[in-house]
Amino acid sequence: MTDVQPETWDAAELTYCISEDEAGIMLRTVLLSRLNMSRRLITRLKRVEGGLTVNGSSTYGHKPLQAGDVVRVRIAEPQVESIQPEPIPIEVIYEDQDILVVHKPPNLVVHPTYGFPNGTLANGIVHYWRSRGEQTRFRPVHRLDQETSGVLLIAKHAYAHQQLSEQLQRGDVFKRYVAYVEGNPQPAQGTVHAPIDRDPEERHLRIVTPEGYPSTTHYETITNYNGEAAKIKCVLETGRTHQIRVHMKHIGCPLIGDKFYNPDTKLLTSMKRHALHAAELHFYHPMTGERVCFTAPLPADLVQLEQELEQRAERQEQ
Description:
Elements: E1 8-17, H1 27-34, H2 39-45, E2 52-54, E3 57-58, E4 70-78, E5 92-95, E6 99-104, H3 121-131, E7 139-140, E8 149-155, H4 158-170, E9 174-182, E10 189-193, E11 196-198, E12 206-208, E13 216-225, E14 229-236, H5 243-250, E15 276-284, E16 291-295, H6 300-317
Parallel strand pairs: 8-15
Antiparallel strand pairs: 1-4, 2-3, 2-4, 5-6, 6-8, 7-8, 9-14, 9-15, 10-13, 11-12, 13-14, 15-16
EC number: 5.4.99.-
Family: Belongs to the pseudouridine synthase RluA family.
Domain Pseudouridine synthase RsuA/RluA-like: 98-250
């Protein structure tokens, strides 16, 4: 019995022309070091009709290439997606054939999980693509906590996802967050070097522990609300789960509204979630190599919180 292969659709095409200086280079070298393809992706090309051609002819050979040879790679994606489309509104910041950047609202899970099998951002994005006739699969490059709002990057095909994931590992992706914390960080600007791991007693939480994974957060106070609270910006050098929330608690300034890491708060506000927003994201475009930057404005609940803190500080000064 022959296995039935799923239908595919063309997600992207890569082209590389061999220069005079590169005459004699091997095809595999072009794929690995010029196009920076993973070995796994190269293996997948062999299963795609016309997945890899030189001067228009299919090839998987190891013969040297000549100056002027044109290597083309066809990134074909299977039309298979386990995530069900749902008409959940999404806010698109930017989109092209390779990436999608969205402004994730607060209190929305990014990807279906055991506890949230549907009603997620992924369900809404798949619906958005299917309504336009696109068979794109959902490939988030990074994650945001359910309550965190802000910029989120999704790759639209396997090659883009590989390139962006490697940027994350190399530290080439710049992420800036805005947070509202209780207290006033001392010093006003600094760096937290504190290893993080799971809490052995409450596995859904993270703690600072000498046995944890190295974790670094740079922070800077933007506004000090009379010592009672502060608006800060944070830049991550590492990307541990709950990193900003754990590190801010570690220095005595937990996030406002954080039910897990600030359950005994004495600062009463309108916040119904932890006050954290992914405000800015920089990375190199996976196809063009251009450095790009995307931002997301504060959502309404954080704007309201900021107004409350300003008014509270003004009353205390009177």
